[in-house]
TrEMBL record, chain A:
One GO BP: electron transport coupled proton transport
SUPFAM superfamilies in alphabetical order: Cytochrome c oxidase subunit I-like
A GO term, aspect molecular function: cytochrome-c oxidase activity
GO cellular component: membrane
Keyword field: Electron transport, Membrane, Respiratory chain, Transmembrane, Transmembrane helix, Transport
Residues annotated as transmembrane: 6-27, 78-95, 115-135, 228-246, 281-300, 312-335, 347-369, 381-402, 414-436, 443-464, 476-495, 507-528, 558-576, 588-609, 635-657
A matching Pfam family: COX1
Gene3D superfamilies: Cytochrome c oxidase-like, subunit I domain (1.20.210.10)
Stored InterPro entries: Cyt_c_oxase-like_su1_dom, Cyt_c_oxase-like_su1_sf, Cyt_C_Oxase_1
Record domain Cytochrome oxidase subunit I profile: where: 227-667
Native source species: Pedobacter nyackensis
Lineage: Bacteria, Pseudomonadati, Bacteroidota, Sphingobacteriia, Sphingobacteriales
Name of this chain's protein: Cytochrome c oxidase cbb3-type subunit 1
From TrEMBL, chain B:
Molecular function via GO: electron transfer activity; heme binding; metal ion binding
Entry-linked Gene3D superfamilies: Cytochrome c-like domain (1.10.760.10)
Family annotation (Pfam families): Cytochrome_CBB3, FixO
Protein name stated in the entry: Cytochrome c oxidase cbb3-type subunit 2
SUPFAM superfamilies, per the entry: Cytochrome c (SSF46626)
Domain of life of the native organism: Bacteria
Keyword vocabulary terms for this entry: Heme, Iron, Metal-binding
Domain Cytochrome c: 48-194, 223-312
Keyword Iron: yes
Record keyword Repeat present: no
Amino acid sequence: MSFTSVLLWACFLVLLTAFLVSVFIYNRVKQAKDLLKNRSYRGPESQLQQHLNTFSSSQIEALQNHLKKKRIAGVKLTKSRLLSLGTIIFLIFSSQQGFSQTTNTSGSIWTEGGVIITLILILIPILAGIWLMMVKVNNLFRQYQDKQKVQEADELVRLLDQADQVALQKALSKRKDALDYALTNKELSGTIPAEDEKGLLHQIQSDPGLPVVALKKRALKRPGVDPALSKLILWYLGAATFWLLFGTTVGEYLGIKFVAPDADQLSWLSFGRLRPVHTNAVFWGWASLGMIGLGLYVVPRVGNAPLASIKMGWYSLWLINAAVVVGSLCLMAGINNGGGEYREYIWPVMLLFGIGLILTLINFLQTVARRKTKEIYISNWYIVASVIFAIVISVVAYVPWWQDGLGETIIQGYYMHQGVGMWFMLFTLGIVYYFLPQQLNKPIYSYSLGILAFWTQILFYTLIGTHHFVFSSIPWWLQTVAILGSMGMVIPVAAGTTNFIMTFKGAWHKVLSSYTLPFFIVGIIFYFTGSLQGTAEAFRTTNLVWHFTDFTVAHSHLTMYGIICFFLWAGIYALVPRLTGKEAPQITVGAHFWLALIGLMFYTIPLMYGSTLKGLMWMDGKPFIDSVVFMAPYWLWRAIGGSLMWLSHLFFAYNFYKMLKGNKTIDVTEVAIEKLNLSNASAEIKL
Amino acid sequence: MDFFNNHKQLFTAAFLLFAVLTLFVCIIPAFNNEQNNAPLPNAIPLDEQAILGKAVFIANGCVACHTQQVRNVDMDKVWGSRPSIAADYADIHRTDTWRNTATLMGTERTGPDLTNIGLRQPSIDWHLVHLYNPRIVVKESIMPAYPFLFEVKNKLEEGDVVVNVPDEFRNGRKGKIIAGAEALQLVAYLKALKQTKLPDGTPEPDFLYKKPGDLGSAKKGEPKELNGAMLYTNNCQSCHQGNGEGLKGAFPALKGSKIVLDDNPELMVDIIMNGYSARENEGYGAMPAVGTNSKLKPEEIAAIMNHEKTSWGNNAKKVTTEQVKELMEVVKVKASK
């Protein structure tokens, strides 16, 4: 800032203050004048009436008492002291002095920083002086005003003395009655005590305390679940939770390696080996086991028949877990299938998983066959079909006859995307079609929309695999089919989203009091945005910018995490309390939700932004290493977001533990009944 | 509808729809590709070392970051002289009983594409140092280090390949650092990755989505000054480094180099076009024929040379495109002799 501008600012400041001071003083003087004017215009009668209207009930009471005693107390006044005019003049003068000093001095030293600082230091006491003057003036006028009011009070005393005592008494008591009028608060409810004859009220909280987080509704008690099935499901979900922790710990470490590539130099932990460990563990370990676990509850429940075979469920659980354990060890030891994403486990390992799937399919099909309902609920369409499709794609991907040369790539595109869309997405949608209406306590909005989404998903999704290899050497027509299929996916996605959102219609208020519904809502939002983002990415023009960049990584996390994981968590928080009778602390559920959501945003948004610019750099022909350097801050953000997500999983694991082993809230009545039963039983034995 | 209430019919229908679609978009195209593509006539199959090296490449999951496909889009021109075609992959078969075919086309390009790495970077020395720790040669690299592919020995034996690792990257390892068998195999594989020339007369597929500027390259006008620094980064920097000082004992410095500062540019053009191995006895690696391998144009070479002649304190006479064009003819004749 140049010297002149500093000076101008100083002048402006001082002038502004002076202006404000003068406006203030003018205002005060005017008020004082008005006070005088009003007094002279009022007649004695109207004045008394006016005073009466301003009295409060207690004041009237005091006055009445006083009138009874017929004694008027004198008001003692303290004399006020006037500040001499000389002081004001002095203050104005001194400020004028200071002002002129700052403006009159001139010379080259003005540009020195020290001088400017000095000027500012000088301005401070000047402004303080002006402020002090304002305070003093204000005091002066207030004291004047007070004096006026005391005079007015004297006048009131005189008026009350002179007035007709009977009329005054009457007016006062009338006014007091009017002021004291109040409702009884029982005009609407009556006086009969309330009773809940229909048993409609639950979970009444008479002592809400001071909650740290908003209190959500607790899970409703449901008819008991077969303990054997319950145990099986909990083992599935527990194993899934373990793989989530394991898989994302690996993922978190991989994210760190982008920022610190020399974090370790061990072969078993090198990036290329760990990456598939992460993806496969969260796919086949966490998401698959989680889905099947929830499916084991949904499939028998919607058919109103018990699960066909609990034993088969256990076999399948062990097989899938074994596949992920052996698979992870193989990958770290450098034994993999040859590089196709999510196809890194060698066939003997994947065979374990495949047998697990076949057992699950047989189990589900038999359960559906034994259903007691006529129709097959839509959930079971999705769930059973997804298991069938998962087996088909695994066979297609691992059978060797059509894998030579580019055949491998065509199969790879098909396999990796069908794995995502026909296994994870389809199964998860089946879970949502059961748990969402259940949590909202109303039927799904449209059964036919669900059916439309089901068939169109099969029709379009099956085609889109090769959009991972746009511009590669696979046939051009196949790429075009994939792109068209991706566009067709708008139909099932829009149908599914509409169906879910419309199910919420009229029940949105339930979101506020539920801790599972927010997970569903996030899942639905990402189902729509994430899936349509996939469509947008498939176009040839967008592929130019985004293909091969970290955009793909961001997209896969928006979908696999934003959709699948959030829906699974929603399902788990809805189901497990039913099985165990225990709930997770709501504060840690909240922590899990927000950390996961915020973490996901920190993970994906910088990555999408950075990779878009990276793609543009490539198109510009910038040196490759420049794009690596450019991405560094975005990779750091990814690591930060990833850390938050990882932290949320710790909360989730804790919540799961609490749902399993947490302290059961003791229901007094239930314990009492139990004790009575016990004593009855012992009495019977004695007899 | 009764159809929907019969689980056998419903799930059979869903299965059939999926299976038929799978057949048409996946299995039949894959079969077609297998049957209708043969390896190019002049394609050189991987030798024994390179096959072992490919196994190392697969085991370490290099495909997570490195693609092996030149797409038919203009931005991929830097990775190969022509777009990859199905025939390039036709000779890749199932690895063994346990492992599937590995075309290693990849879906992420966190690191550079490797389709043509054998041509772009044929120096064994560079690859070994780079594998030991990429940050020795490319400071900004985030590629993992692979010291576990190397051995530390106090006494050299016959046939040992010593890798010149600067002290700050040794992590306290004393003695000579020797390339292990796997490291040598991996480098053999990388060196074998070269695009095969199409048979004479076969038209090369086009690169699509050309930049607007490229389309107008035919129109006459002021020749645009090319960005020498960028071309240097793309073609020379990985060895000679951004500061032009090279790497002690591996890649010679260009800063203050006699050849670069020489007013007669013939030798410099010769080295760029035909490679150079005259300083191998000093421990420096042989330089590949970068200009020929990457099909650099005279104006590009001139831009690179002028960048080298005027950077890092170098202050030599600049060359013109015409000069370089003439010399390129001269050294071409020389090389063929």
